[in-house]
Design goal:
The protein is α+β, with helices and mostly antiparallel strands. About 20% of the residues lie in helices and about 35% in strands. The chain is built from 3 helices and 9 strands. The protein has an 8-stranded antiparallel β-barrel with strand order 1-2-3-4-5-6-7-8.
């Protein structure tokens, strides 16, 4: 009986320690201190991402173009190459969710008439950013989505590995990242 209690105690402690490590790992996600929307606007190339169902058809050449609109909103145009060689595109509207630093955005791909519904707006947080806006890392608080973006179609390996190291510290799993080919 004592052996069962010891095993149970050991299992409980192991579970508690692993739960604590997970809680620390998945702590509050912090965006960059400040984001200049004018500098962020423009074309970005997807270098890597967490796979997701809404990009399933994309096999290469994925880009995102951000355009600041006169009304303060942000137009988002995502494009990629599909398996048959054709280009696919999707437009969205973005808005700044936290004006204190501009790094927390909300993005909606749903039709405009649904914009009053909170659930159609996805969190889109810039969590890492190059000093010259040469790269950006976008994620969201639950860590279900992640994108590494660059102003150029290719990123040198040292820079990529440094980003991977930082996202690991933020509680993301680098093993889930899939690099995006630029040509199919």
């Amino acid at each position: 009986m004592r052996k069962i209690v010891n095993i149970g105690t050991f299992a409980f402690l192991l579970f508690a320690i692993s739960g604590l490590a997970s809680a620390q790992k998945a702590g509050e996600l912090v965006p960059v201190k400040t984001l200049d929307i004018d500098r962020y606007a423009g074309r970005w190339f997807e270098i890597a991402k967490y796979p997701n169902k809404f990009q399933k058809q994309c096999i290469s050449g994925t880009t995102a173009t951000y355009t600041k609109k006169p009304n303060g909103k942000i137009e988002v145009l995502n494009e990629c190459t599909k398996a048959d060689g054709t280009r696919s595109s999707a437009k969205a509207e973005g808005k700044i969710a936290d004006k204190s630093n501009n790094a927390k955005l909300k993005v909606r791909f749903a039709p405009g008439f649904t914009s009053f519904l909170q659930f159609v707006w996805a969190n889109y947080w810039v969590i890492d950013l190059g000093a010259d806006y040469e790269y950006a890392v976008v994620g969201e608080p639950k860590r279900d989505y992640l994108w590494i973006l660059s102003r150029k179609p290719e990123m040198n390996d040292a820079e990529y590995q440094a980003i991977v190291s930082r996202i690991r510290e933020m509680g993301y799993d680098p093993q889930r990242l899939v690099k995006t080919p630029q040509k199919g």
